[in-house]
Amino acid sequence: MQRVEYDMTNLSANTQAILMLVSPLIAGGSTERKLLLTHREYTNLVKTLQQIDSQPADLIDREKISDILNTLEKHQFDQERLSRLLGRGMQLGLALEHWQQRSIQVISRADDMYPQRLKKTLQYLAPALLYVCGDIALLQKGGLAVVGSRHVDADLLEYTRNVGEIAASADCTIVSGGAKGIDQAAMQGATAAGGRVIGVIANNLETAVMRNRSDLLQGRLLLCSPFDPAVRFEVWRAMDRNKLIYALSDIALVVESDVEKGGTWQGAVEQIQKLKVVPVYTRTSGPDSRGLAALRRLGAHSWPEFDDIEDLRRFIHDIRKRDKNPDLPLFSQQTTPAIDSSGIVVDSAYTEASIKSPEQPNTLTIGESATSPESYGPPTPLPVSQEESRLAPRQEQSWGDQLFAHVEEIILQLLDELGPLKLEEIATYLKTTKGHRGQTAQWLKRMLDAGKIEKLPKSRYQGTESNQMSFSRPLTESDTSSIAPVTKQ
């Protein structure tokens, strides 16, 4: 793992400006949450800069900034807000020094190192920034995305590890999200067989780097995230990074999924029905799965279940050939936009089509409110078709049961990512008011009775299975001694 040498001269001016516009720069100090540009706000800013023959770097050019800010104000952008963001130079310097010590590199959409496959497939949905530790060249190579539920039985974990091993033997990179369960099993199987792995992390990239130093040093693992390396867990971030897992791969395998809920389901449905970046396959051997059957009804394919390494190698090769030939049926027929050296789309017709939608009109300006400060935002749930609703067998649930199922998933993810928490801490994450803490207590009791969580001394709760963000081996004492505790913000 090569140490990253940062200074303000070898970081591109575009990336410096983008960092100050959209990144919280947590390591450099605190930034007011609502101050940062959202992905949509940043996209609108980039469009306007392109129209006036400028780029983000011009916003930190002393000779140009005054005129550009005045021009942007005429386009309804908040000049004071932009000035406050661009005045965070000291905070940026401290953050860069902090990341350098942890061998974390940051690249922006304007950099040559930014993976072209993200620009090509996600276009304006590609994150403005990527925080990376490992061999950046891996981001360009594609591979097999393996995704699935967190809570599965031992047989499915063993199946998934075997998929990772076969992929490694076929010289195919595994791409996954690093979450407990299926994700980690696929990554562990690949690294154990000497294969390559890309982990797309939704939070606490710093912690993941420290816990996986061995594989990072050996060049077998790359960890990346579209979010600040110290950012805490939030459900929307875990769901939002799903599109990156698919976009960095050539083909995707869903090993297990719930029906109509959870990040695995939402990510797969988004891919099948909306983004259509890669073909989505589902496991066909082993126990039946309502979730996988529902995905197949929506358009997912049945996984051939390869035992022979050469068969898998040929299969991946054929998929890549289809990707180069848009006349073949597995992929969507989207046009690739022209992108200039600063990462700005220069095909105006494409730009308008790519940003406007009935749900998200292209009218938001920087002065308007937004739901999230990051380069991405909380995802809009994808509706299931009426046909799928009719076909999918399901048990009738009361509104209370449906609400509990959703809350239970969030609580389990919180405990997975943050470790044991007290009732008050869980209630705070759920944004439950003090007068309604009793409802949180009832949910926790129900989960205790179902064996989903257990109660520890000092009134703390944890999931019944431990979660270690390690993709090849258990943590050692040397790992944990050098990891700063995660702040529960």
From TrEMBL:
Coiled coil: none annotated. Residues 357-374, 461-489 have a biased composition (Polar residues). It holds the Pfam family DNA_processg_A. Residues 356-395, 455-489 are annotated as: Disordered. Transmembrane segments: none annotated. Belongs to the DprA/Smf family. PANTHER family: PROTEIN SMF. This is DNA-processing protein DprA.
